[in-house]
Amino acid sequence: TQLLEQSPQFLSIQEGENLTVYCNSSSVFSSLQWYRQEPGEGPVLLVTVVTGGEVKKLKRLTFQFGDARKDSSLHITAAQPGDTGLYLCAGVGNSGYALNFGKGTSLLVTP
Amino acid sequence: DSGVTQTPKHLITATGQRVTLRCSPRSGDLSVYWYQQSLDQGLQFLIQYYNGEERAKGNILERFSAQQFPDLHSELNLSSLELGDSALYFCASSRSSGRINEQFFGPGTRLTVL
């Protein structure tokens, strides 16, 4: 199993602040996906990054895939209460089948 | 709405019992995946089916089994239930496997074993 470590595990910030969460592994992934999950619901796909060094933007969210395709980061600019949730990274390994999920970063944005 | 449906939403049962969880994938998706999510373990891959055939196995216990039917819906069977099986069970679907393999998750079934 290719392990993904996410940090920080918990993050509590105020509305308007910026933040970055990290997803690291010693393994190389074919691609990496970021999901957001709200309590009691299924994860929702935010973005997929495929190429080493790739940067993708989704409104105030910026995703980056490491050059070696072993790590990724998610940066949120001017966080809003609606950004609250569990952010999960998941890697597609060489088999191309199941996703290996990190344990997530639980984000709380207070007004 | 991801287009993936799961039933039931909640399930409460006793130790030693057997339950069946059901999943219907998004229209056109041939792959179905089952995941278990608990507080201490996070999201763990259990098993994948592609067009009716088992494609990959993860951390699935021998007490658990799954199948995918000709209409592509899938069922996850959990037997001889233990307290530790209490968790959220998610089904996900995708068009195909491969390098990108974007998966879309259902709302989950919360299983409570008493």
Descriptive report:
The complex is a heterodimer of chains A (111) and B (114). With 111 residues, chain A is mainly β. Chain A is 0% helix and 53% strand. In chain A, a hairpin with a 6-residue loop joins strand 4 and strand 5 (44-49). The radius of gyration of chain A is 13 Å and the shape is globular. The N and C termini of chain A lie far apart (39 Å). The mean pLDDT of chain A is 92. In chain B, the strands form two sheets. In chain B, strands 2, 4, 5, 6, 9, 10 and 11 form a seven-stranded mixed sheet that branches. Chain B has a four-stranded antiparallel sheet with strand order 1-3-8-7, with no helix packed on it. The radius of gyration of chain B is 13 Å and the shape is globular. Chains A and B meet through strand 4, strand 5, strand 9 and strand 10 of A and strand 5, strand 9 and strand 10 of B.
